[in-house]
Specification:
The protein is α+β, with helices and mostly antiparallel strands. The chain is built from 13 helices and 10 strands. The protein has a 5-stranded mixed beta sheet with strand order 2-5-6-7-8, with helices on both faces. The protein has a 3-stranded mixed beta sheet with strand order 1-4-3, with helices on one face. Strands 9-10 form a two-stranded antiparallel ribbon. It is globular.
């Protein structure tokens, strides 16, 4: 027996020990994949071994998400409104790929907030978790119609982005899958910030045509790739976001499990070092073009690279101008 051990080592080992499922060819899509990189999904469905599997940080974030989900489950159960949890649901359109997913919770009925608050008190939870659970309880209405709840933990940075721009369409499509297959009319996405425990909720109806179209179009496109054996194109390294009129590095590339195989970057850090810097330069120059400012020598070098990548920058400049005007009006 030895006393030469560290609690930190034990903690880190436990959190980082998760097992990856070996790649296996499949003919169904996962609900959480809707809206993701087509080429990544194609390779996964073909059973291709990832070159960039989840790292220790990714595993930690995954476990943090499980912890937040567990807290929500406890509160829903104690408040008497947990109806269903972790149910597998599939959509099987004729002639197309099936979509399968596991919902977080279905909840509904009269909410007993006092019982929920008392439960938090009786549990003797650490202050961090007590604040999180109390925030969740407070966000619930007194009476809930039956609805699907999808819980997402995120960084404070992403929480702010959702607060500004609304829920991710990928998360909406995932929630739509559960609404479609459970025949529940409404649902909510709960975003919980891991940084400061802020919580926000976005509701979605099964009748929301915008999300339905996104979901169905994604199935159609992925079905074409798989059934025809056509490998999708790679993702662009730099993404242009029309809603904000800005250039940014493409997160679908940065977090690709095939980052090295497809794009030649050893890891996300090496991708960020090159592409994030380039995208920042592109965005800065685009802003100057939209504002009619003169180009510095450095700007001119970046502009030359932009014109090679995008040929005609006119449409991008116009979108940026509109986005800037919209920001000015809001301010």
């Amino acid at each position: 027996m030895t006393n030469n051990w560290s609690f930190t080592d034990v903690w880190n080992t436990a959190l980082e020990k998760g097992k990856d499922r070996p790649p296996k060819e499949r003919d169904n899509m996962w609900a959480g994949e809707i809206g993701g990189s087509y080429i990544d999904r194609y390779l996964k469905m073909k059973g291709t071994m990832p070159t960039n599997p989840p790292n220790a940080r990714s595993r930690r974030k995954f476990e943090a998400g499980n912890l937040m989900e567990w807290l929500v489950k406890l509160i829903l159960a104690r408040a008497g409104i947990l109806k269903e949890e972790q149910t597998w649901l599939s959509y099987n359109p004729e002639g197309k790929l099936a979509v399968t997913g596991k919902l977080d919770f279905i909840a509904g009925g009269s909410v007993d907030k006092m019982a929920g608050f008392q439960f938090v008190s009786d549990m003797g939870l650490p202050e961090f978790f007590a604040r999180a659970t109390e925030a969740i309880i407070e966000s619930l209405p007194d009476e809930m119609s039956k609805r699907v709840l999808e819980v997402k933990s995120c960084s404070g940075f992403m929480w702010d982005a959702y607060d500004r721009n609304g829920a991710s369409v990928r998360h909406e499509a995932q929630l739509y899958h559960y609404l479609l297959t459970s025949a529940v009319e409404e649902g909510s996405i709960l975003y919980i910030s891991r940084d400061d425990l802020r919580l926000q909720e976005f509701s979605l109806s099964r009748q929301t045509q915008r999300v339905r179209d996104f979901y169905m179009n994604d199935i159609d496109r992925m079905t074409h790739y798989i059934q025809k054996g056509v490998c999708p194109d790679k993702e662009p390294l730099i993404d242009f976001k029309e809603e904000s009129g800005k250039f940014a590095s493409n997160f679908k590339v940065a977090y690709s499990p095939y980052l090295k195989m497809l794009y030649g970057f050893e890891n996300q850090a090496s991708f960020d070092e090159v592409i994030k810097k380039k995208a920042t330069g592109y965005d800065r120059v685009l802003g100057r073009l939209a504002e009619g400012k003169n180009m510095t020598d450095k700007n001119k070098i970046i502009l030359e690279s932009m014109e090679k990548d995008y040929k005609d920058l006119g449409p991008y400049i116009e979108i940026r101008k509109k986005a800037q005007k919209s920001d000015e009006i809001e301010e």
